[in-house]
Design a protein that fits this description.
Oligomer: heterotetramer
CATH topology of one domain in chain C: Four Helix Bundle (Hemerythrin (Met), subunit A)
CATH class of the largest domain in chain B: Mainly Beta
Number of domains of chain B: 2
Shape of chain C: elongated
Order of helices and strands of chain B: HHEEEEEEEEEEHHEEHH
Shape of chain B: elongated
CATH class of one domain in chain C: Mainly Alpha
Number of strands of chain B: 12
Chains: A mainly alpha (about 550), B alpha+beta (about 325), C mainly alpha (about 230), D mainly alpha (about 110)
Low-confidence stretches of chain B: none
Largest sheet of chain B: 5 strands, mixed
Number of helices of chain C: 6
Strand order of the largest sheet of chain B: 3-2-1-5-8
Amino acid sequence: MSTLESNGVVAEHRMPRDHFLNATHTVKSWLLTMDHKRVGLLYLVSISLFFLIGGTFAGIIRLELATPQADLLEADQYNTAFTMHGIVMIFFFLIPSIPAVFGNFVMPLMIGAKDVAFPKLNLASWYLYIFGAALGVITTLFGGVDTGWTFYTPYSSTYSNGNVILAAGAAFVIGFSSILTGLNFMVTIHKMRAPGLSWFKMPLFVWGIYSTSLIMVLGTPVVAITLVLLMVERGLHIGIFDPSLGGDPILFQHLFWFYSHPAVYIMILPGMGVISEVIGAFSRKRIFGYEFIAMSSVAIAVLGFFVWGHHLFVAGQSIYAGMVFSFLTMLVAVPSAIKVFNWMATIYKGSVSYDTPMLYALSFIFLFSIGGLTGVFLAVMGLDIHVHDTYFVVAHFHYVMVGGAISAYLAALHFWWPKFTGRMYPEGWSRFAAFMIFAGFNLTFFPQFIVGYLGMPRRYHVYPEEWQFLNILSSAGATVLAVGFVIPLIYFLWSLKSGKASGPNPWRATGLEWVLSSPPPEHNFPKTPIVREEPYNYGKIIDNPAEEETEDVEHV
Amino acid sequence: MNQEFQFHPEMASTFAYEVDMLYFFVVAVSVFFMALICVLIYAFAVKYRRRTPDQQAEAQIHGNLLLEIIWSVIPLGLMMIMFAWGAYLFFRVNQIPEGAMEYYVVGKQWMWHIQHPTGQREINELHVPINTQVKLTMASEDVIHSFFIPAFRIKNDVIPGRYTTMTFEATKTGKYHLFCAEYCGTEHSRMIGSVYVMEPEDYQNWLSGGVRDQTPEEAGARLFSQLNCATCHSDRAGARGPSLNGRYGTEELMADGEPVLVNEAYIRESILNPRAKIVSGYQSIMPTFQGQITETNIFNLISYIKSLPVTEGTPQ
Amino acid sequence: MSVSMEVTPHGHDEHAEHPEYRRHQFDDMDQQNEAASLGMWLFMLTEVMFFGGFFLGYSIYRSEYYDSFVNGSHHLAVFLGGLNTVVLITSSVTMAFAVRAAQLGKKNHIIAFLGTTLLLACMFLVVKFFEYKDKWDHHLIPGMDFTWTDPGDPKTIQLFYGFYFCMTGMHGLHVIVGVGLIIWLLVRVKQNKFTSEYYAPIENFGLYWHFVDLIWIFLFPLLYLIGGLHE
Amino acid sequence: MAEHAEHSGPHIASVSNYLTIFSLLLILTAATVGVALLDLGIFNTVVALLIACVKAMLVILYFMHLKYSTDQTKLAAAGAIFWLMILLVITAFDYVGRTWQHIPAGW
């Protein structure tokens, strides 16, 4: 049936008879599932929904900014739109994206476990997510909130007319979902690895998930308590952050960024893990400098907790604290550089194919490098004075979060989609979408670097006329980007019924998850596997391509 | 202001030039590394592309310690250069020059109130003479704002409850954008204005043409007597409050034995929260003026207190 | 392939000898217990960071407005606070004995010690209630008609009370959750759900309860004893 | 599973051990109140915090059995303290730094 030329999979595949998708069919069996794979898919559906909502807000914003005047939206409506865009994209999409979908679905398979350590807690995390997201939807229906996703005091605590308590409550609840997911993953990785799978034999994606979980567990409680204090202050006017009552608004910023800077690494670290998997698989080559990539994930996670003050250089922080934060921020560049250079060295002398996941991975390296390097501008104190709170910052973090995290998310989705569903998506369309997203993304956000350095502040819905040209470029790019994001939605849905059967391992990749049938059986591994080999042992697979093709896990 | 399309903002202050030098350096480093990454990755990707479906990698390489060290240390070194350069600039711009012209800026939703050393007031406009060091002392009446002049490459948050400062020296006449850069509510994007850099004689003409109110000192003096401050703060023997003559810039001993520098922040605190720090030898009897006096009037009082000369018999 | 599908050396046969308390995703009880214990410690790590936000805000404002904090602190009932310290420490030791009884598989002892812990927890809450009520009667609830007539700056003293209520309130919430969990555990013990091999819920609840005690050990001197009791 | 500890049974502490810790905790509580009655200036706070730390250590080590736990558990506990310190110390550094009003000459 299927012929995937670039991978040489010529054999015909059938869908396996029994798998986790057809084990039970009722809605109840999904809503009460303890299966990590199903929980992963529940997250996939729910975060996709919120991606569409957040994307709609983004579209409205770009439409308004196509002209320098306020013609589409009133000031308050615009402020609500960018706030809801930020809250939905960060709390409801990006933070759960790769960890909750792929961490849940793939990570236990990768370490040879039957499930995560606490399946009930895992499902409870999803319900917490849904509860928080519902609060978010209610916030929107009641008119939204206009504080920016950062909730800076005293605007949020005293002056805003939006539903601050409701929105903060939504973020608070989602925070607990995140904490419990992280905790579950850490215990799973510590305690549930298959025999023989020592720490330095773990796939790099698992390292990425572990580092991310570390941040979720350590950082999220701090933002939770900050939001509690904010809600208490707004409700009762205690004055913890209100200067007219003796409080200090900068304290809020410290507490907020103590979590929210590492939160950026929550989004990007698992993405880096995905890229390591994809680059290895589509270069058919052992990952160069495995230990360095693994350790750099942990280093980024730990260092990430020392750098939050670089958001506060001109916020009234002491210049001495600023200097310490600037110095420590510079150190993060090193593990990031290590990763990029090691990926580069992995491609060297590989056997490189250009399947869709690899296209996203190459695009990730390009966009993330730009995002990372422009981050240096913001970490350098003298430059940050000028670019802080301008579109330069907006462009920078979109390069990291959209160009980085979402590229990686799409790479992961295309890479593991056959594993999720047992079916292939149409390769031509998926490559086309990848190109559209890449082009649209750069057209949207690169002009924002320029307009940012020219001085356009963020969160402005009217702006000086001489910047209209750059803003029109940006809005035009956003249109292309939007189309690029809709195409995968369509062909993934299409492939559920009509995609060709993929077989257990369409990419001929290494890793325990590819040993199982696609979709995997309900209880993953019938017998606990024993791992004897290094990760990414691509040398050996190629020696016996035939063996791999005929292997049927259920009968071994 | 240039209305045409530009790629790079105007450089109109001494600091703008220095920031741009650093900016170009970081841009150069970034472009170099982007070029390196792109050329190598895409060259590898093309050169080692898979030609037949079963093609293997040419080699399986575990890694190379020397390479890892090289590509850790070189970025680290570059980062340290950028850090040091950036920190140096940051300290420089935060250093308040002696004898700078002092403007007071009050941000409130959604406008900027600016008061000149000579008493002129403007809203959303700032006129400054060229080649003159200017110091802005800034406060907010409500939420956090941020005073941002892109052409000067400077920005600082304007925070309720305390003072922040910034300095610049304009080098090019013209009209430049003034923005609020910290999101402050509904009309945030209309909390904008213009900075006019003028030749000294034009500036003088502008000053004389403008409606001149009292100077801050004069306004402060009037407030000082209106609020009956002198009832207690005087040189008289047995006065209930410490004399304020010639105290600005000196160190005062507090009741708890700590010395405190008498500066703007301290005077402001003493007006709004008199109990916070009590000068040694005096009782805590001063009432608070919180809510009864605007930020602008506090500036005026401070200007007046600053102007008070050292008098005979003032114990130093 | 890079793996082989063998029966693990310590893997059980799927259907033989599978006690109901062993979850399907674990190979054996050791693995399950270790996972539960690690999970509990990680949870307490998050709790430390959670309260950490309070402690940070508290320390910043305490050093900024020391006099107000002293003033505010002097209106707290040191005796009741001290009494509650003793109550919680005692409940902590009875909880430790409950865990010990569980390790030894002595059902009656578990019930007795858990019951005592429950009583002490309730006693803590009752004392706390009277403290709060006293503050209510004296209009010392921040944001709700807060009045301060004694010398001192009412604004920043209200800030102290803000922290007092946030910190003790959040701690009290943990005690209330603890009470609920003890009742749940007591029911499970009655139903003979635990054995000397499987008592992880009791042990992990013990960790939680000691943590609640731990927080109070810091809250007592930090809130009730600012500036000492001399004068 | 990769690193299962040898199964040697849980540590069961003796009754007298618990009672000793209990009485130490009560004595230290009394000491906290006692010290508060003296006027030691800033040391009132320091001593109160020190005593609280000792009490906390006793609870963690003996009631929570950390002393007999795996290295992994000890690491988790140490991690909690370490990360709490990051939050407290670095933020406090900002507040201390804000009082250094003068920028050194030469910059």
